[in-house]
Each structure stands twice: as C-alpha cells, then as structure tokens.
Amino acid sequence: MLGSTLFFGRNAHNHSRGNWKLPTWFAPSPEERLAEAHGSQCGFCTPGFVMSMYALLRSSKQPPTKEQIEDSLAGNLCRCTGYRPIIDAFGVFAKTDDSLYTASPSESANGKAICPSTGKPCLCRNETDVNGNESSLLSSVKTYLPSSYNEIDGNAYNEKELIFPPELQLRKIMPLRLNGFNGVRWYRPLKLDQLLQLKSCYPEAKLIIGNSEVGVETEFKNAQYGVMISVTHVPELHTLKVEEDGLRIGSAVRLAQLQDFLKKVIAERGSLQTSSCQAILRQLKWFAGTQIRNVASVGGNICTASPISDLNPLWMSTGATFQIIDVNNNVRTTVAKDFFLGYRKVDLKDDEVLLSVILPWTRPFEYVKEFKQAHRRQDDIALVNAGMRVHITEAEGNWIVSDVSIVYGGVAAVPLTAGKTESFLVGKKLDYGLLDEAFNLLKEDIPLAENAPGGMVEFRSSLTLSFFFKFFLYVTHEMNTKGLSEGLDVANMSAIQSYTRPVTTGTQGYELVRQGTAVGQPMVHLSAMLQLPNFPLGSLVSSSQKMCPVLTILGQLDSSKKRILGQLSMMGRFLHLMSLLVLARSLESLWQTPMIMQKLLQIK
Known about the structure:
By secondary structure, the protein is of the alpha+beta class. Among the domains are: 30-96, DNA polymerase, domain 1 (Orthogonal Bundle), CATH 1.10.150; 174-233, 2-Layer Sandwich (Uridine Diphospho-n-acetylenolpyruvylglucosamine Reductase, domain 2), CATH 3.30.43.10; 234-492, Uridine Diphospho-n-acetylenolpyruvylglucosamine Reductase, domain 3 (2-Layer Sandwich), CATH 3.30.465.10. The protein contains 21 helices and 17 strands. The strands form 5 sheets. A 5-stranded antiparallel sheet has the order 7-8-13-9-10, with helices on one face. A 4-stranded mixed sheet has the order 3-4-6-5, with no helix packed on it. A 4-stranded antiparallel sheet has the order 14-15-16-17. Mean pLDDT is 78; it is low at 1-27, 97-103, 126-160, 533-537 and 560-604.
C-alpha cells in the first residue's frame, strides 16, 4: 500500500484553498477511494481488490479503461457490497469523459450543488460556499477536487516509490536448492540441460510454475511431493515464436502472456490464418481470473489433464501437436488427441518434459469455435466445454466438409471426440438437412450415464447438442458473408454472437437529511479506514549478512515514529496473550488463566 499512497497522495481537499490547482497525477489512492465510496464493509475481500487495482495502475502505460478495470477485478469476489460501490470507487482512475465529474450537478433542498459522482456537496460548483463556509463543510464531508483523470500514467510510479531493491534486480540469477520440512527438496534450474539432469536424478519430481494447481493439491488434497522443480527460469520453456507452420508456444508460458501474444499475432496476420488463435483467445477471456492467468502456464494446464480444462478440447480440435523431450535430449512429437490417456493421466513418462505446443495456422475456409457453459460467466469451472473445427472445400460446384473435428470436455474422464459424427459429416454439404442425423450420432458419441459425476445429466447432454447447433450456425453465417451459402434466420442470429457484457453501471439514491449525528448521513464506517491503513507497517531492510537478527530499529527514528512502533509492539503482545487466553479457555485449562491474566496486567 505504500507505493500507491506515495503516488496518489493524501486528502486533496486540504490543498483546495486559493487558486492552486492539483497536478493531474494527484488523486486519491485506491484504498482511500474504496473506503470513501463505501466499497469496504466486512473487509475480507478488500486487500484483494486494492492490490488488483494497484497492479493495473502500476503496470499500465496508458490510463486504464473501465473495461480494463472490471477485467482486472474479475478474480475477486465480494459478498457484502454487490460490487457497485467498488466499481464506483475505482472508476475515477478510468480514462473517461471528465464531464462525469464536471457536468452540471443536481441541487439539494438547500440549494447547494450535489456532485453527480459522489452524491456529496460539490466543491467545484460551490466555490462561493467553500470560501465562506469551508471549515464547516469540510468538517462534515470529505470531497476531492475534480482532477483530469485522463492523464494518469501508471509509469509515473517508478519515480515515486521503491518497487524492488535495485541491488537485487542487478543480482545475477543463480540456480537454487532449498531443503524444506519432512525432507522436501526444491530446485530452480536456469537451463534446460539442468532441468533434464534433475529429472534424470529425480524422475518422479513435480514440476512447478505458478503453483495454482500443486498448491491446491498439497493444501487441500494432502498430496505429498518429495522433490519439486521450479521451471520459471528455464528460457527454452518460455518460447513464443511465429513459424512457417504455426505458432510455437513454450510449456512454461503464462496464460496472460499467451493472451497478449495471440492478440499481436491476430492483428498482424489477419483472420484468414488465425481462426484457431481467435478461438483460444476468446476462451482465455473466461479462463479463471486475471490473478490466475498471470501465474498459470500452458503446460501446467495441459499436464494436469483436468476433465473440465477449457483449453484441452481446443488443442485437440485445432490439430495442435505437443513436443516432448526426455533426459537424453531426444524429442518426440505427439498429437494432442493422443496425449490424454485417462483421468489426469497423460502420455508423458517420468523422464520426459513437455517442451512446447505447436498450434497450426488455419487454412482458407477453415473455421474454429470455442464453447463453454458454467454456472456463472466469470471465474467459474465449466459444466461442459467444447472445441470444434471444420474445413470446407469446393467439389463439383458444391462446398462440402473435407475435414472436421468435434471435441467435448466435462463429459468424461478425458476430452471426448465425436468420432461417428465426424465421419458422417465428411464429404457432405453442411446444411439443415443433416442436423437430425448429426444430433442422433452425437448422442451416441457423447453418452452420459444417469449417475455421471457432476450431475445435471439431461442439461449437460442438451448442451452437447446446443454447442454443435451453434457451431453449424456460425459456419453457415461465415460462409454466407462470402456469398457461398444462404443467410441465417433472424431468430438464430443471436446464437453466433460472442457474449459481451457492457460496463457495469449503477446509482445509489439517498436524501441528505441529518437526524442526530450520523443517522441519515452517508458516512464511511469506522472500520473502513482500519482495514485500509494510511501508514506502512513494514519496510525493506538491507544487510551485508544473511540470516542475522535485527538488533535495533529505533536509533534513527524520531519520537513520533518511536511512539507508533511502541504502540504496535504493545498491541502485538496484548493480542498474543489474548490468543493464549482464548486457547486456554477452549482447552478448559483453567489453571493457566490466572497466570495469563497476571501477564496482561504487567503490560504498560
């Protein structure tokens, strides 16, 4: 929180006297905005929202849009606010029309202007009142000067705060070996050769990148891994290349990096060769949240072999191939369709490592489409998902299916290929006349028993048919745009449109009627500021010695900071002893209670 506080500054109303104007970068910090806009209630989710917003601002070269802000917050859940005040709080950082903050405001019963953004008395429209009654107004309401938030530049952070110690940034990265509890060993190689050597010594070692899956397994499923190897610094696994036959994607590439790379490729290559890239990019939008995509990797998702993986059906349907290397540097290639053997089992031996994924370019008149249905749109696992591809060629004046691939996920232990349906479609003209037979074959290809894991069998079975019908409509529409087929009925047009959610909008209406001191007033609850501290409670300390204790930190501090540290130290001791008291009572060890109470009374 220190960095955001330094960049965005403190209460702007303290500087509003006279004609002095705030710099364009001076605005309330994310944590202050969250508190002032009533976005913090129980406080459980508050740190996640603040840090997500801080990370977006810190990494943005351009002022973020409202869409980007909402996307960055998508992985955070709140059960108190309904999200409206949270979105409102962070909306001031969006690149938007300043009229939201400077347009003519409404007037309250006493004739004073009310800001359309905050619902509070507007300083920019009540300058006369501010000059005459500023002390009384500011004593009851905190407001901020309208600044031009369009000019906020996230890069300005690097001049305002210490993000990471420069000494450590310049430090040469070295291979690591750490020993943990219960004999656990952790390695970090820097080259592929080092990784393969470790694999030869420890064939059953678990490879780790973002820990988004292994962390869950060890924490909640009691999984035990004696040796873990982090491959985050192996450059051969982070390849992102455009090649003649397609894209080469390293197995350690993060999903967020893949998103950015695919956007760039699509912009450069156009839609003719990138239908598969577009389908994967659209699917990634609904893949977990931003925080997970920032750490999760392509290879990790593939090798985990989850039955409900959103990407594996697409790798299979697009004809992707996987390159695998063993400890002797022998490389073999397998098609994605043959890689998944059973429930979380893949065609990967103990002495092998997934090296990269080759995603082929699409051909003219080849179409790829992704599908996913979950309980909710964002941040949820799939009930059923699918990847479908078809290549249509001209033969004797007719456009027929020359190649097709239909793969479903979430319906079995591994992604299922609709083999009978594929064979039926090849060589036929894609029209409404073949739908009934295709549906019947799909029911045979994708059977769901009444006791299938996940339940909702009838609904999930209907999804498999619905996805294929949507794919048929999508291809028909694409061919129609080229003048090669009949157009779609108006009633079916919505089925081919990708889901887009408009930017969240909402308002809160209330009447400013004072009843006593607080009733009827939109006051921020006291806990909000406690959940969002305005001063740092920690700092980085450099030392020439490793693993050495900090003997003193009070020598260079002034008396006010010493007093704060003393209060924190006393509070820490008090809370520690109180926890001991609660533990003693819970264990009914009443003989300990007098001793603990005596220690409490000794605190000064």
